Structures are given as C-alpha cells and as structure tokens.
Amino acid sequence: MRIATWNVNSVRTRLDQVTGWLARERPEVLCLQETKVADALFPRKAFEDLGYGVAISGQKGYNGVAIASLLPLDEVQIGFDALLGPDAAELSEQKRVISALVDGIRVLNLYVPNGSAVNSDKYTYKLAWLDCLGRYLAVQAELGDPLCMVGDFNIGPEARDLHDPERLSGGIMASAPERDALRGLLGERLRDAFRLFEGGSGHWSWWDYRTGAWETGRGWRIDHIYLCEQLQACATGCVIHKEQRGNPQPSDHAPVLVNLAWPPNDDDDQDG
User: Does the pTM exceed 0.85?
Assistant: First the structure.
C-alpha cells in the first residue's frame, strides 16, 4: 500500500495538478492539506472519476483536510473531539484533523498550525494544539489500530531538515518548544518514515513562495509521515516528489509518499 501526503494550497486551484499526479502514480491513499474549500464545494467528482473515494473536512478559504482512497474509507473521524469529546471542541473548530481506517490501518491526516511568529498568540495556539494532539494519540494508541500519521507539520524537527539551520533554528517552525512538543507526542511509538531510509540533509518538501526559495534550493522538510512500530517493519521506501514544486503555479509543498508491504505476509511466520 502506498500512502501519500500533500499540502496542495487550494485543491480547486491545483485540481489538474493533483488529479494528474494521481493518474500517474496511483497511490492507494492521498492525504491533502489546505484544501481551502467548504465541503459542499469540494471537487469530489474529479477524484471519483479516477476511482478515489473521499472523506473531507473543509472550510471556506482556509485550512481544510481530506483523504482520497482507492480502498474503502471506514470509521471516518473528524477533529480532535472525535476521540477527546467536548474538552477538545475549541481546538477542533479549525479544520485540521481527519482520519479513517484503510485496510486496517488508521490513517491520520493533519494540518498543524504554522504559528506565525515565536511568542505570538498563534504560536501559543500551535503549542496548545500540539499538546492536544498528544492526548489524542494516547487515546488512539489504546484503540490498537496500526497508525500512519501524515501531514504538513510546520516543524523542521532537526537541523538537517532546514537549508540554513544556523539562521533558522530557534525561529518559527524550528523553535525548541515546537520540536520538543513533536518529539514528546511521537514518543517511542512513532518514527519518521523518511528517516528510516535517508539520514542526510538537502531533502526538502516546502519552498517558501516569498523568497525565491525554489529557484535557489532553499527549502525545509516539514511534511512528514510517521509510522507505528508494526508499520515501520512494513515500510520499503519513502520519497519526496520534488518535481511537483516545479509545476506552473504550484503548491509551495511537494507530495511525500511511503510504500508499505501491507498487509504483512503471514507466510513469513510459518515454518518451511
């Protein structure tokens, strides 16, 4: 099974790019962030014409997440409050969390807040949101489903995930509280799929529109796929489809895709 994540920065604006990529690559699952469209206006038919069912949680002009799948989407859950109840209702108002069971895997799609600037109100919100995600994951772990958590995390976890770590570390998306919060919620359970296969720097998934970052190769790796231990053992590769950032009028993000040998081969557990 191949599961991909892509912040498309408006699914309607970049619909031809998304459907073209799906037609070529045919991942079983594509998780989208920043769809920026109310549910009633989501271009569902374009995905269905390619054989993909969709689960969506959107709002007009901002945020928005969706899961497109060639396989049935079961037990769709929207928002933190799906597992945490009324205590998480306020942090569920912005449409940033959706999950579904796909062939027995709980696929969790997230659009983590950017935070704007360290010490701003939006930064405080981001840290509160990450804390809520930690509580959400603790409940999810108790349910026992294998977890693949993907999305735009708006955090470069380490120096090797930034093109200029000396200048950028400590600022927004690379501050110690953000990185500590991410490490804390991952715990011992979840690992970065890309880092299972690639340890070096220079691998980016996001290039800022405003600074000519694409043209000068100054990117960040902020789009991640995290796997539980059971899925780590099934992972056979994880790649960033960088070429999509070179499209005319592209998203500022590129898709990231993990390949899983799923379901596991039961014959491996048998003698002979």
Answer: yes
